[in-house]
């Protein structure tokens, strides 16, 4: 039983973990901030606005020691949501455990052997959904392979990879796609480990036994339950037939869950509580396909960062189910159900067919590089949005049953969410500078750090397993940014396909419907201006949650706009340069990491300095109303949050913003 937690600083997160453990939480699930996830120190230019926002910053072994101060790692099961820098964070974790053992007067090697937990370490889904990748696919797969091979030998209780279908569903995956792409990722990883020669064939069952999965549970209860039974069946089949694993225990499908965040609404957010409970039941009621670990989001995630009380509420949901209900007293409740068996069979067959398509393309890595899987997810997400907007898919409180009593939970929005101290970034940036200066002021420590980084570069240029060099970097007080920079020198960086240009949107529309009316507005405004309307969709900072930006880009294209979208991880300066070079009529900024108050004003200033201050800027994201008001006061034309789910309405308002900025009269036509 976990809650996904971490923010501000190592010390603040340590206090939060201690409180959560005291409330009955049985494991830790660490959220790292975006600079840590993408290999930057807090004082790097790309870290601006992102430090401590969506997780805890960990810049070196000192931060890791502070994060787990007073929490004996030998006794803890720790899940770390970390991917591109997973090897580095595990190295910091191991060195911290070694030092805890030494302080306790015990043998460090015994503590390391006893460590249990998980590094997420699934790079494939980062290219498709989450966006915290750093290196190209091939070296990323090497990092995964090296970490798997190392942990099987040296940390046998550790799960070195947590293959994540969770993020695929958040990016729009259907159940069939979620199963197929997760299994295709598993094949890519297991094939790479097998072919590396680092694990003898007679020990390969140990590799399979340490592979775990992290899945999503949506609100379609029966479908989600059947999806998990399909996962179990396919994994058993795959590991037995493709890899020859005869030990049934090693073939067991081991998975953890965070239930769906995509379906959480800002409108009537109290409804999120029953959504969370229903989704939890979907992965617990079927004993033969039951989750091993569950972490639940909080009811107010669509509003902002949950408070400790909100996390406690989610933990108590699990505890009531486990200890008050009789769920755990019975064998599988669905064995022999014709309905469940038929649905499972359909999902299995659909997943096999999609896995075959990926295999034909050359496997998961090739399907990422070609853009096939990304385009498929963007198209599925577009279809999901179309169903919600049309009312085919009912979302209570959002597109039906919208009348509501005043909500006491959100009566004071300023206290309904956790806020991060604005000084966190400044303190973290100063702290990492002091860490490096103090290290380098000592000739011995400086020489050791330089030698460790040189060894890392040399090993990266060879086929040597990179874990030993990473451990030496951790012991030598190297920082997260320094470790990643050394590998960037060797491996380079990568920009994944956006999936927008190859994606199918909502398609054609009938005359008189909402999209047709928006197309009319776009066309008439283009005629008034004598040119086609152009918009830029920008993702500044390190926020890799691109699903919303992609859907805006696809719908804008379908509505007749010319769309400029260069993907994630842009600086404000790059966004401004693109807006000026493309001579766009509007800039749309998407930020879900909470860095809007730092990055959006920089875009506004940049446009003014470039002589493009008349280009309107709109912003979308998880933005509290007080911040939205401040952004509007700073010059932002409009602010959209999750309650603004109607993309056709948003498109029409974008046209209105452009017309206002260009001094054109308001058009009468508007979407229904």
TrEMBL record:
<keyword id="KW-0479">Metal-binding</keyword>
<dbReference type="Pfam" id="PF02310">
    <property type="entry name" value="B12-binding"/>
</dbReference>
<keyword id="KW-0846">Cobalamin</keyword>
<dbReference type="InterPro" id="IPR036724">
    <property type="entry name" value="Cobalamin-bd_sf"/>
</dbReference>
<comment type="similarity">
    <text>Belongs to the methylmalonyl-CoA mutase family.</text>
</comment>
<keyword id="KW-0413">Isomerase</keyword>
<dbReference type="InterPro" id="IPR006098">
    <property type="entry name" value="MMCoA_mutase_a_cat"/>
</dbReference>
<dbReference type="InterPro" id="IPR016176">
    <property type="entry name" value="Cbl-dep_enz_cat"/>
</dbReference>
<dbReference type="Pfam" id="PF01642">
    <property type="entry name" value="MM_CoA_mutase"/>
</dbReference>
<dbReference type="InterPro" id="IPR006159">
    <property type="entry name" value="Acid_CoA_mut_C"/>
</dbReference>
<protein>
    <submittedName>
        <fullName>Protein meaA</fullName>
    </submittedName>
</protein>
<dbReference type="InterPro" id="IPR006158">
    <property type="entry name" value="Cobalamin-bd"/>
</dbReference>
<comment type="subunit">
    <text>Heterodimer of an alpha and a beta chain.</text>
</comment>
<dbReference type="InterPro" id="IPR006099">
    <property type="entry name" value="MeMalonylCoA_mutase_a/b_cat"/>
</dbReference>
<keyword id="KW-0170">Cobalt</keyword>
<feature type="domain" description="B12-binding">
    <location>
        <begin position="532"/>
        <end position="661"/>
    </location>
</feature>
